[in-house]
Structure formats: structure tokens, C-alpha cells
Amino acid sequence: CYRSRSGKFNLLTPSHSGHCSVAKRCETVNTMASLLWWIVGFYWIVSGGDILLQNAPSLYWLAVVFLAFDVFFAVFCVALACLIGVALCCCLPCIIAVLYAVGQEGASEADLKVLPKYRFHICKDEEKPSVGAGKMVPIETSSGYLANERILLPEDAECCICLSLYEDETELHALPCNHHFHSTCIVKWLKMNATCPLCKYNILKGNEQV
Fold it and tell me: Per residue in 23-36, pLDDT tens?
């Protein structure tokens, strides 16, 4: 560290700064020499390959090897960049979901047992199917809680986790926020993350959302 004329302290000494400047110049010279060799070698191969092969076979094959290596390296870099781009586009949603789930507090078996449980029944003809796609008939849970029966419209009779329509006799779970899902789907979800997949209602912390 030395003090310049302006009174400020510089971290690099004059000798160290000189070494950096020499290294940068050597790097520039090396790059220019490689580019010049590539141009000259390409010209030799294209314009007088047969003559060069007869008069100087070693130089000919040296130029061919260097050109082939440069082409292979360029193709490899482009292919690698494309693979990385495709991998990021395909795997980014999964990576984001995993990172989001890491560190989230999951629900316990005791928390899951108190959630209202239903069995879905598709409306028959005599039950006026125009009123709704089906009804959620409550099932008594181990805690003894029995919820009220609910009628679902056609657009609501779907699990937003697996994106499948509710089939007849399917077991459902409803959360305190009134959103409902397949029992198997929502149980797996809540064990990893105790929030509603739709509105982020936290079943452990009440109205607190994350």
C-alpha cells in the first residue's frame, strides 16, 4: 500500500501494478496469435491443402488438428449453453417449488385429524344436476367433528393440486378457508407445508398467511 500524489492510499504497489499490466498484455498477444494462426491455417487448408500436404505434411496436420479443435470447442460451448438453457426452463418450476417447501413448517397427524372430511357424490338426474356437479357429504372424523353438507358447482368439483375432477365416492378434505381437495393430495401437501395451496392460509397459525 502506498500513498499517491493526490493523498489517497492505493492497495497495489507500483511493482504489482506493473506485473498485472504485463500479464494483460501477454494475454492479448496470445489471443491475437491464436486468431492469426487460425486464419492462416484455415487459408492453408482451403487454398493449398494438397500442395501443403505434399511439401509439409507435419504443418498440414498441425493446422488440421488446431482447426478441428477450435470447431469442436465452439460446437461444444454452443451445445452446452443450449442444454443449460433447456434444463433451466424445464426444471426451474420444480427447483422453485422445492426451495419454497424447504424450511416450511408441516402439519402433524393431530393437526390433520381435526380437518373436516367429506365424501363426494355426483348428482343423479333426479337430484337436479343443474344445481351443482355434486355434493360433499360430511364424514365423522376421529375427533367426532361433523361438518355441514356442501353443494359444488361443476367448475368447483376439481382438485387444484392434481387437477383432476372429483369422482363419485371420492374422499375430500376441506380447510378452514373453505377450499377443498382430494384427501390424499392435501394430506401430502400439508405434511410438507401447512398452508392452503390456493390462498396460503396457514392451518397452524390461523389467519396468518405466508
Answer: 788 878 877 877 77
Q: Is 3.30.70.980 the CATH number for 109-205?
A: no
Closest to 115 (Cα-Cα) out of 8, 191, 167: 191
Q: What Cα–Cα distance (Å) separates residue 145 from each residue in 89, 115, 117, 140, 172?
A: 45, 9, 9, 6, 15
Using 50, 70 and 90 to split pLDDT, how confident is the model at 100?
low
The tens digit of pLDDT for each residue in 118-145 reads: 999 887 755 454 445 788 888 877 666 6
Domain boundaries, the chain: 17-103, 109-205
CA separation for the pair 178, 156 (Å, rounded) = 12
- H or E stretch including 45? helix 14-55
| Interatomic CA distance for residues 153 and 129, integer angstroms | 9
